[in-house]
Hints:
The complex is a heterodimer. By secondary structure, chain A is of the alpha+beta class. Chain A contains five helices and five strands. Chain A has two domains: 2-76, Roll (Ubiquitin-like (UB roll)); 85-163, [2Fe-2S]-binding domain (DNA polymerase, domain 1). Chain B has 18 helices and 32 strands. In chain B, helix 14 (553-580) crosses helix 15 and helix 16 packs across helix 17 (747-768). The radius of gyration of chain B is 27 Å and the shape is globular. Chain B folds into three domains: 38-139 and 207-254 and 262-295, Aldehyde Oxidoreductase, domain 3 (Alpha-Beta Complex), CATH 3.90.1170.50; 380-472 and 638-786, Aldehyde Oxidoreductase, domain 4, CATH 3.30.365; 488-633, 2-Layer Sandwich (Aldehyde Oxidoreductase, domain 4), CATH 3.30.365. Chain B is an alpha+beta fold. Classes of the chains: A alpha+beta, B alpha+beta.
Amino acid sequence: MDVSISINGEAVSRDVEPRQLLVHFIRETPGLTGTHWGCDTSNCGACVVQMDGEPVKSCTILAVMCEGHEIRTVESLEVDGQLDPIQMGFHETHALQCGFCTPGMLMTTRALLDENPNPTDDEIRTAISGAICRCTGYKNIVSAVRWAAEYEAAQSGAAATQEV
Amino acid sequence: MATVENLPSTTTERPIGFGRLKRKEDARFIRGQGTYLDDIRLPGMVHGAILRSPYAHARIVSIDTSRALAHPNVAAVVTAKDLETLGLAWMPTISYDTQAVLAGDKVRFQGQEVAFVIATDAYSANDALQLIDVEYEPLPAIVNARKALDPDAPLIRDDKAGQRDNLASPTWEAGDEAATDRVFAEADTIVTRDIIYPRCHPAPLETCGIIADFNPETGQLDIYNGNQAPHAHRTVYAHVAGLAEHMIRIRCSDIGGGFGNKVPVYPGYVCAIAGSIVAGVPVKWVENRTENLLSTGFARDYIMRSEICAKDGKITGLRVDVIADHGAFDSTAQPTKFPAGFFHIVCGSYDLQAAHVKVKAVYTNKAPGGVAYRCSFRVTEAVYLVERMVDALAHELEVDPIELRMRSFIAPEQFPYETTTGWTYDSGNYAETMRVAMGIAGYEDLRREQGEKRERGELMGIGVSFFTEGVGAGPRKHMDILGLAMNDGADLRVHPSGKAVVSISAQTQGQGHETTFAQIVAEELGIPPEDVEVRHGDTDKSPYGLGTYGSRSTPVSGAAVAVVSRKVRDKARLIAATMLETRPEDLAWEKGRWYVKGDPEKGALIEEIAERAYSGDAMPTGMEGGLDAQVIYDPPNLTYPYGAYIAVVDIDPDTGHVTVRRFIAVDDCGVRINPMIVDGQIHGGLAEGIGIALMELMSFDEEGNCLNSSFMDYLIPTALECPDFELGETVTPCPHHPLGAKGVGESPNVGSPPAIVNAVIDALYETHGVEHLDMPCTPARVWAAMQGRPEPPQ
């Protein structure tokens, strides 16, 4: 059946099988391979994308369910060569090793910061508890989110000062 | 505008050499631009899927593929019969056993490969699996390794001529049995325990997969496959498929974690290669998570009985008798001469008078393995055993577990130290590292807190482990795998502009080789690490070597890179002497330049020497142009990193739930090239250790059905199970490694499970009389132990 999904602001249309998973649609149709899959059972979080701003596991959603919805993937984070602060935080604090969970972690924690710009460590750990990282032991991921939160606070503080 | 390249740098003006350099590889990963196996698409590529056995042990009566072949999108269905005509029905394992690529006669474990479907897309390939009709005649399954050698046990490996029982490898021994008997006869205290290191799984987040692309016109086989030892794989494929090795090229690109799981060659790889040879198009096969857990390399599964003894309050001897469960095909990872890997490092960090170790391995109707899950060939099982035994002995002696360890440690002046089972430890100051850990933990305060909580009925445990590992395999005079020396190559080319490319045989799966190895060249040549490109993961573009596992990258490949850099530096010295019109022996080195002794202003930078080496100007007499070198590094010994770990746990007395509240890890891995990457490795290994100690288990019912074949049942720690790890360090350089480094990747996985289990038992010993509890310490198992009914894992 025909489906048209907005992925990173661009409409992507295709005739798909009703059973096709969103993760496969994203990887195959626009060829955005930054979104990974790791488990088939919604446990690992490697496939997390944002659907209308909410983090969702794209292995648990059918492509046809996304008609008319706005999907954002890791490829949308950098805009005009400007990295998102959460990407910067992961690099600054060594919050990734093999990189396989990283796109899902980035989309999960970006959504967290959008909702809660100053999360506690416990809130960060709860937010990422639906995602598995086999490399980092999560410690530096927590640090990365703190880094990004503080960076964004400093940026908005500087902007407020400029406005004055 | 912030990019990885122009983020504000915290490094010095000319960042050279060792230190907390942020990683080069992050630039692609934070943008979702990594290239993992499933991200690769080749023109004309088709997709494979594997039909697997639902039975653990059954005779195959018939296989009917006709309905699957009638599927409009199916190109071919391959069975054992087809592979037999190609000579590919069986393949060698890394332990000189054989393994069925596709089962023809019998299936021997649940999930074993039975048929391979090739279709135009992955969905169709999986649909077609349902259309293959296989008739099985079920047979009794052997699940419990202790029963594998019973006289009435069904014979699993009836395919092997002369195999009369389920013995996978005969009893292997280390140490002096008679001397150990004498030490036990003289001891004043002896403790015996039955201890299981249960079956677990590395479960990297990216599963295994391959693309095989055989070109019938040229005979070239291109393989895309994330594996930890691409050169060794190439040699194996040459032997298995009868192809010329120089016509095989393996490219690894990015790998989403390995942890030992991506060391072996799996049947799916051979099927994809056979499929591409037959079909003449690229064939991709990527396993799903269930296939990964069901059929690829598990780890551990050691059933151990041990006795430890003491005299005058000091540990004096150890006896160990092991049954190793290798599953249906022996594909355990270890060097050829060591059927139990490095398990005989079980003497640990202690100055024992004698020890004796016996290991025999059996076949069972379970998936083949075991691989070294973040482990140097059974070091993990050994460390777990000895650290549990030392705690048991401390309970018997009514002495603090740290005090018993302190009394029994090998002393600094005893290094190099010969263990009673044949290892030569390189360097160490164990008591100092233990004291650093006690300081970070606040050990005395913790014991006080524990006493107060106990009075209130709260269950708190403090667990200690002190491990010594043997890593960096290894010297060619002592070890090989499948006849291949465990050496690694490095090839360094400094270009005319002074920028360099170093090619290595180690294979990163996330360890940050592109950064660390650039730092080694930078340190040795005095050029910025950003001017050094590290090439790996392509057998056509890197020197031969045995890859990355067993913490061997820095000990072996890192040494190779240091040595090749020094060779380049030595050549540069001769060129500089010509440039400066002086003798080489009159030159001195400082980072980045050779200068004239006594006239430091007069010198030549590496960049200037490189330019000269490729220019039309004269070279030293008899010397070829260019500035490059190549080495194959043969380590003179293993390296022996060690560490002191302390776990603090709280146990819910009502549910048996264990929370790791604090974890203190003090590692001594010698010189640290990039301390940020070292810390990251330790964090990750500790999380895996928490998983193994508390959650992760591959278990089976009596019929051999795997009960943990998805992440719904095979539980991996999340951020909520992991505490905010507290790290410390001591630095005792390795005396024989050119950089003094020892390797660290597996240490936290090795050292943390005994610390956590010791903590759980520490919480329950006095209050509930729990003397031992096998992993994983799940709430149900802890609860049963608290009721006096500890059960071994099934």
